[in-house]
Amino acid sequence: MGKSDPVAFAKALVDCGFNPGEAPGGNPDFVKATSDSILSARRRLK
Fold first, then answer.
1. 33 phi and psi, to 5 degrees?
2. What pLDDT score does 27 carry?
3. Predicted local distance difference test score (pLDDT) of residue 1
4. CA distances from 26 to 13, 19, 32, 33, 45 (A)
5. DSSP states of the chain
6. Better-predicted residue by pLDDT, 24 or 31
7. Cα–Cα distance between 31 and 9 in angstroms, integer?
8. CA 29 – CA 27 distance, rounded (Å)
């Protein structure tokens, strides 16, 4: 809650254990991939 920056939002998800970036199923590039997706969606919605 309260995160308006995509990178801060993705880091907060990692901090609460959403994606630890460890196998199996973790994405070590989660923060970048998630923030890039959010920014891309934001650009398309404008």
1. -60, -45
2. 84
3. 77
4. 13, 6, 13, 12, 29
5. ----SHHHHHHHHHHTTS--S-TTT--TTHHHHHHHHHHHHHHHH-
6. 31
7. 9
8. 5
Question: Which residue do the tokens 């995160």 mark?
Answer: 3
Q: What is the pLDDT of residues 2-25, one digit of tens each?
A: 899 999 999 999 888 888 766 677
pLDDT band at 40 (very low <50, low <70, confident <90, very high): very high
Residue 22 phi/psi, 5° resolution?
Answer: -110, 150
Instruction: Dig out the tokens for 12 from the structure.
Output: 């907060």
Rounded Cα distance, 46 and 44, in Å: 6
